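I am still getting used to backbone structure tokens and would like to learn alongside you. Please make up or recall a protein chain and show it to me in full. Would you write everything just below, so we can both look at the same thing?
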Amino acid sequence: MITVAEIPLPTGNYNFEQNIVLNTRNIRIEVKWNNVGEYYSLGMYDIDNEVPLCYGIPILLGVDLLANYKLGLGVLVAVDLSNTNQDCGIDDLGDRVRLISVVEQ
């Protein structure tokens, strides 16, 4: 079975942490806006084991953000709802650009 879910993100908040569940694991995501590079980056932490899983991952459209990590959390991809395929700007995350989780169980 494949489960597809949107990760709810606050809009208008350029640096935030949020607890979510991915593939039955309690995860804290940390999202930060990089003013110099003009992009968002993603960090993930295992809440139960208090272990960092990955950090500093640029949030790019249409790319499996977790592909370089063997975390068992499935696929995490940023999707442009406007279909303009523009990079995610400072005001776009949680609005025009959403994070989608795909997990095969």
